[in-house]
Amino acid sequence: MCGIFGVISSSLVNEDELTVLVKHAQQRGRDSSGLVTFLHGVYHIYRADYPITHLLKEVRQQASHVVLGHSRLVTNGLGDNQPIARDGVAVLHNGIVVNDEALWAEIGKERTLQIDTEIIAGIATAHLDSGGALEQLPVRILSLCRGIVACALILPRLGKLCLFSNNGSLYVGRKGDATFFASERYPLTAIGCGEIDQVREAVFVDIPSSQAALDISDRKERKTDLIPALSLSGAAEEEKLLSYRRYQGRRCTKCLLTETMPFINFDADGVCNYCRHYKPRNKPQPREELFKLVESYRRVHGDDCLVPFSGGRDSCFGLHLIVKELQMKPITYTYDWGMVTDLGRRNISRMSAELGVENIIVADDITKKREYIAKNLRAWLKSPHLGMISILTAGDKHFFRHIETIKKQTGISLNLWGINPLEVTHFKAGFLGVPPDFEEKRVYSHGVMKQLRYQGLRLGAMLQSPGYFNSSLWDTLSGEYYRSFTKKTDYYHIFDYWRWDEKQIDDTLATYDWERAPDTKTTWRIGDGTAAFYNYVYYTVAGFTEHDTFRSNQIREGDLTRAEALEMVEEENTPRYPNIKWYLDAVGVDFKEAIQVVNAIPKLY
């Protein structure tokens, strides 16, 4: 996924306007970049595995009337980059085509690259070679491809640029004699474009025609892949290092919680205090109240709400409800901090395309974010502490900061969240010494005093391993600030009004061909690159994971029997080697070193 942009002008491209487009595109991903210019009758393509702002400086002296480009968040096709050039056609594509492998045989063309975007160029050339009409080309591509296709298709021999999208993540605007396009409306507004239109129907723009071969320049600096391959057949010796012995200690007689749970106690009947203090959370308010609440936000024209969107099970079902049941017109917002897996991104692409919903991405500096994780993980490995595991996921809390930026840029205030009300994990702070707050009604707790106490306890644990005092500290603290201290406005939870039903959710998502993980039966957190590792730590040391607490809440809600839940967690707690390996490779920590440290931690049972 990426940000694409372009300027087509009868005069030289204005550098200030181009810079605005470039910098905003980079907000959507900076892992690699590409530019297209037209000089002396030839289209020149520049591709680099570094940020677009860097690439632009290198080619800026080549002034042109046409400049098109992208800033990419590396997803499918780790070794290839855009613009994709094939058979005299070039493609800039935002999105992921999730069925590209199956399409090559159908169009009668040979695949030459890993990247999914190549299929768009392949379909284009097959269609035109067979005498197909240019006007029907976008329809042909969109009829075959599944997943987001927001595309700029460059046809030099025909002197045409074709812009089309199946989810609305593409806008075109005009200013003077120039035509501009971008993945979002905001940068076009910022440079003063008028007549800004969201591209739902194909738009054809005249560009200089050229019969010359495309001139391609590839520039590579990166020594490692940002996204390691997810292999199911991993190294046998490594996989053998992962231990899994079934917990045989005491559990609550009503739920699944173990005696190793922080602050747990049992009554004479063996029922734990978590059960005794539990108040049903999955009891929605009347749905009519939500319809009444959103009525003032509805717009006759344009989108009317923002939906935070991870590609996970609950946010995907929440989006389904918002579009199909609430009849709202959302824009989804995704924050990628380097731990969103390709599976999660493919599900974002599937759902956005199927529902025709624009997806705005804010991608952090993934290389830097993973360096932060690695520094904190190495500090943790020197002094393992279950209460400090949460620092490994602190980087994702900037999600709460960027949604405020998106609200300002889109002019949309209402945000609807699809957070599972049963995802309460008291133990993560409990291992740090924070007792459970049984009155807390939200998955994410707020409050100054709570946070100050929590951070004080965390500081004490950090002092045991000075490596925590590294360059990531400000990133961690500022993320916690935006999550817990900033005021949330126009902020509502869809599952406060819709009952959360796991079977209904799984069945509904199956109709979208929603992708499940190949290494586990659960559909929870499968797009999160961190969960497999930290759950392995919790289970190895304490004999339970967040699956146990989640299934225990389902028991208390009457959704599962204890026997059903126990059978589920025995499978769900099985170590997921492919995802643990992916995680450690992504942050550059040796698998054997990390797992041996975890395995050597004294057990609580």
From TrEMBL:
InterPro entries per record: GATase_2_dom, Ntn_hydrolases_N, Rossmann-like_a/b/a_fold
Record keywords, A-Z: Glutamine amidotransferase, Transferase
Origin: domain of life: Bacteria
Family matches, as Gene3D superfamilies: Glutamine Phosphoribosylpyrophosphate, subunit 1, domain 1, HUPs
Domain Glutamine amidotransferase type-2: 2-210
Keyword Aminoacyl-tRNA synthetase: no
SUPFAM superfamilies documented for this protein: Adenine nucleotide alpha hydrolases-like (SSF52402), N-terminal nucleophile aminohydrolases (Ntn hydrolases) (SSF56235)
EC number annotated for this UniProt entry: 2.6.1.16
Coiled coil, from the record: none
UniProt KW Cytoplasm keyword: no
Catalysed conversion reaction: D-fructose 6-phosphate + L-glutamine = D-glucosamine 6-phosphate + L-glutamate
Pfam name, any one: GATase_6
Record-level Gene Ontology MF annotations: glutamine-fructose-6-phosphate transaminase (isomerizing) activity
Descriptive protein name: glutamine--fructose-6-phosphate transaminase (isomerizing)
